[in-house]
């Protein structure tokens, strides 16, 4: 995952209108993902809520004057962290910070829909920002946000390459699983929010993701013919397939077994667990319960006194990024955001 720091002068305004949260389509009756239980037995306990509240106060204090926390990708992770705990634009204890962040992301959209800001970025930044905006629109019905989001989705559609994937440039050239998965997440968020996405676009994208599956190990490779599977890519692959309703039990079972064997990926620790938490929550059952307890205990032990998470794993992206992802992992049981609902 590559990111390019970008900051902008906030210029766009985004009004907020309350609307019912979007929901995902029901799971097909014949789908049998492994380990699913009728009810999610994992809840946020008091200690976890306290840690999350402390982290959100830390992030609120770190917001830049323009409404950002770094580039559009990191800013979007932070925005989702607030929203996953019920803080919406101008609603909740951090409502003003969230509204300011939404205005910032909208101001980063170029005329062609590319949401990276005037100092540049890449399709990973764009995909993450678009996903965040779909969640804002899906939970608020804000028409100004919808306009920006529709243009951002149109750019994703136009830049899909002939393999069905995307890479870092906003052009239909190369593809890799990391950037592709982020675009698929954004497309799914748009569909949930009622924004049209042609079925062929998502179908071709899933075909590309499936090409990256390594049947020898059960994991997912960076590209179809690259060497070696990885934990982060495998977690992302399972997450997207579940969210898109592709419940191929054999592939998912093999991928989950691979994840349990490998445990994590130090080179992409936070990125990997961002996806793993949501992937395994979709899988459900003991797999999810054991994972959440292990991550919760680890994260509560490693949180700093000021509320942040900061370590050498993916340290280049800084504590805003790490703290936001820690909050997102801990907050999965809240199911506030449409994209992460079962």
UniProtKB/TrEMBL annotation:
The record's section on InterPro entries has:
Prenyltrans, Terpenoid_cyclase/PrenylTrfase
Q: Which CDD domains match?
A: ISOPREN_C2_like
- Source domain of life is Bacteria
Any one Pfam family here would be: Prenyltrans
**Assigned keywords, A-Z:** Repeat, Signal
Domain (Prenyltransferase alpha-alpha toroid): residue spans on this chain: 52-165, 196-269
Q: Please list which residues make up the signal peptide.
A: 1-21
> Which is an annotated GO molecular function term of this record?
catalytic activity
Its protein name is: Prenyltransferase alpha-alpha toroid domain-containing protein
| Source organism of this protein record | Frigoriglobus tundricola
Starting at the broadest rank, the lineage of the source organism is:
Bacteria, Pseudomonadati, Planctomycetota, Planctomycetia, Gemmatales
């Amino acid at each position: 995952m590559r990111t390019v720091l970008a900051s902008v002068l906030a210029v766009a305004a985004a009004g907020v209108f309350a609307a019912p949260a979007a929901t995902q389509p029901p799971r097909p009756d014949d789908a049998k993902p492994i380990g699913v239980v009728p009810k999610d037995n994992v809840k946020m306990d008091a200690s976890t809520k306290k840690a999350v509240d402390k982290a959100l106060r830390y992030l609120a204090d770190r917001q830049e004057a323009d409404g950002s926390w770094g580039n559009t990708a990191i800013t979007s992770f932070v925005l989702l962290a607030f929203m996953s705990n019920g803080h919406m634009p101008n609603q909740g204890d951090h409502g003003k910070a969230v509204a300011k962040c939404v205005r910032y992301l909208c101001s980063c959209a170029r005329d062609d829909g590319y949401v990276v800001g005037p100092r540049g970025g890449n399709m990973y930044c764009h995909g993450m920002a678009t996903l965040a905006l779909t969640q804002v629109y899906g939970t608020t019905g804000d028409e100004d946000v919808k306009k920006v989001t529709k243009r951002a989705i149109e750019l994703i559609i136009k830049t899909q390459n002939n393999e069905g994937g995307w890479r870092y440039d906003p052009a239909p050239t190369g593809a890799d699983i990391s950037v592709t998965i982020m675009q698929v997440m954004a497309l799914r968020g748009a569909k949930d929010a009622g924004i049209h996405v042609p079925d062929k676009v998502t179908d071709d994208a899933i075909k590309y993701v499936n090409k990256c599956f390594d049947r020898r190990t059960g994991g997912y490779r960076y590209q179809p013919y690259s060497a070696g599977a990885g934990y982060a890519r495998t977690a992302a692959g399972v997450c997207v397939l579940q969210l898109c309703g592709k419940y191929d039990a054999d592939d998912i079972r093999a991928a989950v077994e691979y994840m349990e064997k490998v445990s994590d990926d130090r080179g992409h620790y936070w990125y990997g667990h961002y996806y793993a938490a949501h992937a395994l929550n979709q899988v459900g059952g003991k797999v999810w319960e054991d994972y959440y307890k292990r991550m919760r205990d680890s994260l509560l032990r490693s949180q700093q006194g000021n509320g942040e998470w900061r370590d050498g794993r993916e340290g280049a992206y800084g504590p805003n990024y790490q703290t936001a992802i820690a909050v997102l992992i801990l907050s999965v049981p809240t199911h506030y955001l449409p994209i992460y609902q079962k």
